[in-house]
Amino acid sequence: MSTSMALPDFSSPATAVASTATGLRSIVAPAGDATSSASPSQTSIISEGGGETSLPKAFDGGLGSNYTEASCPLFLNSFLNNDTFTNCMPFSLLLQTSMSFFAASKSPASISHTLDSACHVVFPTCSAMMSNLAQQLKLDSNCGADYKLQNPMVRQAYAGLVAYGPLYQASCLKDSAKKYCFANAITNDTSPADSYVYYLPLGMPLPGGSQLTCSDCLKTTMGIFDAVASNKSQPISSDYTQAAQMINMGCGPGFVNQTVSQSQSEGAAAAVGRSRPFTAGLLLVVLAVVTLAHVV
């Protein structure tokens, strides 16, 4: 499969939708793709109660109104409302910003159907699109000013875009029983901490005292994250080592690699570290809500 393409120009919100539609095609994987049994035209999933519900979308609770430049929410909406983007079903953005994804995560069946759709895409095409959007987001003509001011919505959008690759791979992992590792983790009422690891690529460190199940899923997921942890452009570069050390304390020395090149990761630690007080606190709130929801 060829992965070459002409990337769309997102330098201005006015051209974003049109250029996306013409510059990126074939987002959904062929029907015979072994990664999923989902239909290429699927726009909804069957809920646990038997009814149909729309597939989750990023920022479906709204973008708010606290922006320095009017161009920023225009830019965000230009791709959030575009079918080419939504067909990529970016798990990395849904995880932190989607209320409908949160609702789907309460049911093993619903979240598994959602992951079927998120994994049944042409990854190179979607990955290139997310990378391009991340670059365009930081332009002064789009969300550059709000990014520098650490606007929460903008920072969440950026983290989700740059972390698309590792979180796509991690979310599509299956265990020996052919069940999604993430579905097992997010619906595990007896060990709610199992889902915390998926927030690492978004720059959100593991809460202190987290006790994760020492499974093959965890080991393989951390292996995926380890592969990008030395890349200073990835938010996880500032959080991976701390998480790996915590996991090895509970699972035994060497369960996961905990050595990341300090010289390569220092830049990212400085870049994303300034926003960590917000993201760490947000993670604790989000995970508390998830835990309570599953209990109820």
Tell me what you see in this structure.
It is built from 15 helices and 2 strands. The longest helix has 20 residues, at 276-295. Residues 1-51 and 263-296 have low confidence and may be disordered. With 296 residues, the protein is an all-alpha fold. It starts with 12 loop residues before the first helix and ends with a helix. Strands 1-2 form a two-stranded antiparallel ribbon. The relative contact order is 0.11.
Short description:
This protein has 296 residues and is mainly alpha-helical. The protein has 15 helices and two strands.
The run of helices and strands is HEEHHHHHHHHHHHHHH
Number of helices: 15
Mean pLDDT rating: 78
- What gross morphology would you assign? globular
How many strands in all? 2
- Biggest β-sheet: strands ordered side by side in the sheet: 1-2
Report the C-alpha radius of gyration, rounded. 18 Å
Measured by DSSP, the beta-strand proportion falls in under 5%
Helix coverage percent: 40-55%
Query: What structural category do the secondary elements indicate?
Result: mainly alpha
Termini separation comes to: 46 Å
Largest sheet: 2 strands, antiparallel
Low-confidence stretches: 1-51, 263-296
